[in-house]
Design a protein that fits this description.
The chain contains 13 helices and six strands. The chain is of the alpha+beta class. This is Transposase IS200-like domain-containing protein.
């Protein structure tokens, strides 16, 4: 995943890999023209040393031909072969699933497809509140599922990778926190993020989560309370909501893709029922409550 991230020029902010599904919060920057040096760096970051050497030899041949003949069509075709795969969410997920399937089949001596359905994606507004909400939902998946009491102990998630020293995972969490105005060392940011996760993940009568006593221990040992809103998450809005963000953001997305909706649809933004949040909207008006802050019972 990290090698594919480096090759495609996207940023994995955080992720969680479960037994039968996975979640990833991915930033896809606008694609810009790449210099030859940057393209070479990405190729070397992604492919094996042997394969990268072969690709670089191809580059030298097509470059020499372009210089000798003045015809750059072959060189342009070579560049397009690699750059066309970059900065695209669908291609990122497709290649990630393909590479995992090949590894899994080889490891387990099996053949055939591994994934049942096409992936689902939600367009997330680039704001501190919405990004933090989505990151929290992802990090707490293994806790909500009752697999671990502490997300740090679930090795297949961004938070655990960051705690273990993963540089790229730390960059992702730092970016999430920097969006929320937190500027500090990794040690302080990690403490704030941990407090936030434990407060957000408190268990309820409806679903497993962080034990209140454990949460209090983390708060007492870790420092100040986070400024993030405490909230509960249900899966449907984050998987099926199409877009998530402020009312203005949803309306802008709606107008950009007006042809996707019927003539009777006059506006895009729909409040998330049962959330208690006045500033968070979804593109779809789902019937089930999605988020329940402490003290509010979820609907459905």
């Amino acid at each position: 995943m990290r090698r594919l991230e480096a090759f495609m020029g996207v940023r994995v902010l955080t992720y969680a890999i479960m037994s039968n599904h996975w979640h990833i919060l991915l930033e896809v920057p606008p694609m810009t023209e790449l210099s030859d040096d940057e393209l070479h760096r990405r190729i070397k970051a992604f492919y094996s040393k042997q394969r990268a050497n072969v690709i670089m030899q191809e580059y030298e041949r097509v470059t020499a031909y372009a210089q000798q003949t003045g015809n750059s069509a072959w060189l342009d075709e070579w560049r397009e072969k690699y750059t066309s795969r970059m900065g695209d969410l669908s291609i990122f997920v497709k290649e990630l699933k393909e590479r995992f399937s090949k590894w899994y089949n080889r490891k387990n001596n099996r053949k055939g497809t591994l994934w049942e359905e096409r992936f689902k994606s939600v367009l997330v507004e680039n704001s501190d509140h919405v990004i933090a909400t989505m990151a929290t939902y992802i990090e707490l998946n293994p806790v909500r599922a009752g697999l671990v009491e502490d997300p740090r102990d679930y090795r297949f998630c961004g938070y655990a990778e960051a705690v273990a020293g993963g540089a790229e995972a730390r960059k992702g969490i730092e970016q999430i926190l920097h969006m929320h105005g937190q500027q500090a060392s990794w040690r302080k940011l990690a403490a704030q993020y941990r407090i936030h996760l434990f407060c957000t993940g408190e268990e309820t009568s409806e679903r497993p989560g962080v034990n209140p006593e454990k949460m209090q221990q983390v708060i007492e040992a870790g420092g100040e309370l986070s400024t993030y809103e405490l909230m509960r998450c249900r899966v449907r809005y984050f998987n099926d909501g199409v877009a998530l963000g402020s009312k203005l953001f949803i309306e802008e997305v709606f107008e950009q893709h007006r042809s996707w909706f019927g003539e009777k649809r006059k506006s895009g933004a729909r409040k998330i029922r049962g959330s208690g949040l006045e500033d968070l909207f979804s593109m779809r008006d789902l019937r089930l409550g999605a988020i329940s802050p402490p003290g509010l019972a979820s609907l459905g």
